[in-house]
């Protein structure tokens, strides 16, 4: 991933992990209190339905909340995935916690694990496999120019075929009222299909450039 995009996404990933840790502590606190109010046993091996129910409600609420946010903002897909993993793991073990000391210890271990993984990914992206947004944009610009040349060449070939072939792609009988119709609609000549393919390629590159150019500008300014 280009540097500017990666740093922006990494900031959101770290925020997602920290927020997930906060909700995990809240879930475990609620679960511990539910165990204290409904059971006299203080062993972690004992099953407590109230603690499990409270943990399940919190897990359902968190998963619904983050995926609603993800549906509205699809660009936050990776932070939501990280959050969901953190919430699932901590909610599964929350009913087994008999006090907050054990809960805090587990959340700290989870927090160190997730942040260590993000730190390794950051080191690999910035030092081992560095790629700037400007480099990605320049590569796309070169492909965009190449796509324009291909489209112009395809148009030139198509115009040459109009001297002899039926320009409307009708059947071999050249009946004005009949056109070549296939399973997917009208059947165009090979030259016309080349133009359509070239235009599709240019459109895709243009969409990528529109999204990456803003990141390249920010990266250059910073």
Explain what the structure shows.
By secondary structure, the protein is mostly helical. Helices cover 75% and strands 2% of the residues. The chain is built from 6 helices and 2 strands; from the N terminus they run H-H-H-H-H-E-E-H. The chain has a two-stranded antiparallel sheet with strand order 1-2. Strand 1 (181-182) and strand 2 form a beta hairpin. The longest helix is centred in the first third of the chain and has 36 residues, at 3-38. The two termini are 18 Å apart. 21% of the residues are buried. Mean pLDDT is 84; it is low at 171-179.
- Continuous helix count: 6
Structural class: mainly alpha
How many strand segments? 2
Strand order of the largest sheet: 1-2
Radius of gyration: 29 Å
**SSE topology string:** HHHHHEEH
Mean pLDDT: 84
Percent strand? under 5%
| Unreliable spans | 171-179
Any idea what the shape is?
elongated
Separation, N- and C-terminal Cα atoms? 18 Å
Q: What proportion of the residues is helical, as a percent range?
A: over 70%
Q: Strand count, sense and closure of the main sheet?
A: 2 strands, antiparallel
Helix and strand arrangement:
Elements: H1 3-38, H2 49-72, H3 77-93, H4 100-128, H5 133-161, E1 181-182, E2 185-186, H6 190-221
Helix pairs in contact: 1-2, 1-3, 1-4, 2-3, 5-6
Brief overview:
Helix content is 75%, strand content 2%. The chain is mostly helical and 222 residues long.
């Amino acid at each position: 991933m280009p540097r500017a995009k990666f740093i922006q996404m990494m900031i959101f990933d770290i925020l997602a992990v920290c927020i997930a840790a906060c909700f995990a502590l809240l879930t475990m606190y609620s679960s511990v209190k539910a165990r204290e109010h409904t059971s006299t046993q203080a062993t972690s091996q004992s099953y407590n339905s109230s603690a499990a129910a409270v943990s399940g409600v919190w897990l359902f609420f968190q998963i619904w909340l983050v995926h609603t946010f993800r549906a509205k903002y699809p660009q936050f897909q990776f932070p939501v995935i990280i959050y969901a993993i953190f919430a699932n793991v901590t909610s599964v073990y929350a009913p087994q916690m008999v006090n907050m000391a054990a809960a805090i210890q587990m959340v700290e271990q989870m927090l160190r694990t997730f942040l260590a993984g993000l730190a390794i990914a950051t080191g690999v992206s910035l030092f081992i496999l560095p790629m700037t947004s400007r480099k990605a944009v320049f590569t796309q610009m070169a492909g965009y120019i190449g796509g324009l040349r291909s489209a112009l060449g395809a148009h030139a070939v198509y115009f040459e075929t109009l001297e002899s072939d039926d320009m409307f792609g009708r059947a071999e009988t050249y009946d004005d009222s009949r056109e070549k119709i296939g399973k997917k609609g009208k059947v165009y000549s090979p030259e016309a299909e080349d133009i359509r393919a070239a235009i599709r390629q240019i459109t895709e590159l243009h969409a990528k450039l529109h999204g990456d150019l803003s990141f390249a500008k920010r990266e250059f300014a910073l």
